[in-house]
Design goal:
The complex is a heterodimer. Chain A is mainly α. Chain A folds into two domains: 83 residues; 43 residues, no CATH class. Chain A contains three helices and four strands, in the order E-E-H-E-E-H-H. In chain A, the strands form two sheets. Chain A has a two-stranded antiparallel ribbon with strand order 1-2. A two-stranded antiparallel sheet of chain A has the order 3-4. In chain A, strand 3 and strand 4 form a beta hairpin. By secondary structure, chain B is an alpha+beta fold. Chain B has two domains: 169 residues, Four Helix Bundle (Hemerythrin (Met), subunit A) (Up-down Bundle); 103 residues, no CATH class. Chain B is 54% helix and 8% strand. A five-stranded antiparallel sheet of chain B has the order 4-3-2-1-5. In chain B, a hairpin with a 4-residue loop joins strand 1 and strand 2. In chain B, helix 1 packs antiparallel against helix 7 and helix 1 packs parallel to helix 9. Chain B is elongated, with a radius of gyration of 27 Å. Classes of the chains: A mainly alpha, B alpha+beta. At the A-B interface, helix 1, helix 2 and helix 3 of A face helix 1, helix 3 and helix 9 of B. Chain A: Keywords: Cell membrane, Membrane, Transmembrane, Transmembrane helix. Chain A: One of its GO terms (cellular component) is plasma membrane. Chain A: This is Subunit of Alternative cytochrome c oxidase. Chain A: Its main location: membrane. Chain A: It is found in: Cell membrane.
Chain lengths: 127, 326
Amino acid sequence: MSDHAHKLEILRGLVKFKSNTQKIWGVLVLLTIVTVVEVILGILRPEALMKSIFSMKILNWIFIILTLVKAYYITWDFMHMRDETKTLRRLVIWTAIFLVCYLLFILLHEGGYVFDVYDNGYIKQDF
Amino acid sequence: MDNTVVSTGTEGKTWGGGNQPLNASYGKMMMWFFIVSDALTFSGFLAAYGFSRFKFLDSWPIADEVFTHIPFYHEPMPMIYVAFMTFVLIMSSVTMVLAVDAGHELKKAKVTLYLLLTIIFGAVFVGSQAWEWATFIRGDYGAVQTTGGNILQFVNAEDGNRIALRDFVVAEDDGRVAHESNNGLWFKSEGTQPTYTVEEVIHGMEANSNVLIRTQIINDEGKKTLLSREESLKLLKDNGKVVVEGANLHVNEYGTPLFANFFFFITGFHGFHVFSGVMINIIIFFNVILGTYERRKSYEMVEKVGLYWHFVDLVWVFVFTFFYLV
């Protein structure tokens, strides 16, 4: 059906596919590579990546960024977000991103605070 | 009055219901609304997990020491099994999107095949999840919980590896049996008793000079703190309270029970989504076979269910990162 035009480029036009089916397999390859990298890093846990940047290990930052990369391709190509209108895309993505960031900020900040209270030895009991 | 429907002359116009806002049909739009709200639910759970983890940052269990099992093989192999599960779910997403693609071209046979594959991959994933749960519940080494609720694990001083309770503790007959409701107070019940008592663990440790204890606290090298022989014995005798084997909602041999609670709750909630997804896929699968969408000249239902299915995969990507990697 002609009204289902698919955008067939990924990686900002670096890779172009001839058909939608081909693009799907291409995205699978990409996701597999990312997962394999994650698993290898997860098994090796190289010493060099254990340093902290912005109060989290570099390795953990890498894991989180790779996860967002995977999430992007699942949403954009498997869920066809790439082919939806810009408005729908922004409605869904920015709503979720804003609320998730808000939630993460509050809860992680609070968790870190509670840790400090324990760590300073002021309160021993669970609260 | 033979016709109550009045033609308003607005058919096909913006306010006559004739167009689709954002070029998405009603059904797809509603599925997106649901997905956004469900995504926020999962974010709430994962953020709560993050909260608890930050709260116990120096004593949280190390995932690589917890999820080390693969079927039919008994050496510790972290990551492998969960990587397999991840791949299965991604693969099922691929077959789903291929089904959607075939649906756009109205190729019934292809849609049928790809949906069937999706269902199979989904079922394999749920089964793997069940196995993962069973292994986690059963546990492997066993540990002792202190009066303060901390977990003491046992280490072989010679090679530095974990040592299981069954390898150095001998069960003695202390006459204690599990209470059954047909035997005494019928309104009281009692769960399974641990194989060993703390007394027996103390005896076992005294008899084996190579056994040390490690605490929950993570040291500067990112490893659990190992105690000396004297400290180990003293801690066990002073504070040892319950023998813990495996994990449930109250105790967890791998560390804080919160870890087990979150694991059961988040992977359980996700597994429930996968299970529902498989069920919905099966319904759609039969509709495809019966030709429902063929007659409609539109396989949009496959696309809508596909959206949900991909979302389940999307959530797993995050669960995988935050439970197994970070």
